Amino acid sequence: DVTVENLTSGQPLSPPLIAEHNRHADFWSVGDIANHAVAAIAEDANNAPAISVLGKVRGVGVIQTGVDEGASAPAPIGPGASQTYRVKAEPWQRLTLLTMLVNTNDGFTGLDSVRLGKKRTVIMARAYDAGSEANNQLASHIPGPVGGNPFVRAPEGELVRMHPGVQAGVGDLDPAAYGWTGPVAKVTINPVR
Q: Per-residue pLDDT tens for 112-131?
């Protein structure tokens, strides 16, 4: 069971992409260029390219959009809320998770190839900037509730890095309403049999 708790007060998290894979498969890393599949999630909460393309990568066992236990369809994780996903995985494989901070241009959080074990693991996940879209913070470029404008881009061409957060005086976002400090999500991996 993988539980994702949204620690922000104004950033819904998109339904996460969850992948179980071996050590040879790699989806994203800080300091690398975000591939198309990762950029699609970070910019528009669009998991389809990742499922289609990365699902064919050698070493990937399971790749799916998370559906909360007891729910029938994927749904965003609201501020302060949590969802739990059941993932079929083998011990000692890896878990990658990606979810967009939907009131940003290309902000996301998640796990990068976390090794699965037999004990409960808790990870405090920070926010990352995909580097694929400029952080203009304009509602016209944001897919989340603050803008409602998916698939509008301001290309940037930078590397994946820590997200600087919502900046005062830039675009339409108020840091008091949409900003964060510290980790943005708490991810708990709990092995079940």
A: 999 998 899 999 999 999 99
